[in-house]
Each structure stands twice: as C-alpha cells, then as structure tokens.
Design a protein that fits this description.
7 helices; alpha/beta; globular; Rossmann fold; single chain
Length: about 170
Amino acid sequence: ARFVAVAGASGSGKSSLVRAGLVPKLTRRADWRVLPPIVPGGRPLDALARALVVGPPTGSDGAPALAERLDAGGAPELLAVVDELLAAREEETNAALLVVDQFEQLVTQGSEEQTSRFLDLLRGALAAQGSPLRAVVTVRSEYVNEALRLAAVEERAETYLVTSLDRHQLRDVI
C-alpha cells in the first residue's frame, strides 16, 4: 500500500513503533530513502518542506522557498523533489518514505486551507503512476476515520491498530 495508517490510543506506542521500529529498519536498506518524520501542526506544507531540505540536492533556497514551490507546483513538484533526493544517493533507491506523526493534527490544528493544500499534494503524489513515494501516518484511534476520510484515501489505505503495549512488548517491537 502507498498509504499506511498506524492507529491507536494516545500513549499506545504507535509513534515509537514507527520511529524506533520501521524507520530505522528501512533506513538501513539501500533501496529506501526515509525522510525525516514530520508533525504537521498548523502549517503542514512547511513541515514537509523542512523534511525535504535535509539533504542535497533540493537547492539552497531553504524550506520556506520549497514550501512555496510545493504549493505552486503541486504533486508534480513534490515528485520532482523526491526524484532528486533519490537520484542523489549512491545506491539505487526505488522508494521514499514520508512519515507523518500525529496525523490527527490535520483535523485538530490545521486551517482548512492549509490542510486541504497539503492533502491534495500528498494524494496527488501517492496516486501518480510510478510514484516512488509512500506514506506512513500515525493517528489517534478516535480520529482515524475522520483523518482517512479527510485524506480521501479510505479505499487505498491499510490501517494497523496498535493496542497498549507493556514495556516488554514495546522492547520486542523496537
């Protein structure tokens, strides 16, 4: 699946599962480029741009200018930046992973306009033919239906429910 939601109650370990389990595992693989995880907050395009400027060759214009480019260029611009990041690696890299932690913030914090622009960009990039982009989001269980409906990916999303883990289970997961 190109879009995976990891859902669970607050404090259930969903962010730990993704950040300490999935991200390091994929980072060690040459065929994946894992972008720094983002927390959308009220300005999700800015958060995305900051994750994309972490490595060359996104140019020297920095995150604010990249956010403007993404906003103006939409999904094709996002895919062009992702392709640049993949091409910059010495290894043959086929896929890029975007982790959006606390995805529910798009419902609870983002302005409708900011949220809509970010989700249009993400949806378009994920749906594009041959897109190397994949997204894993963490979302609190009470917002999962609303967040997936808002993202308009309900039919294409895989959702994993994380139940509360004790210390031993959490250590095993990590």
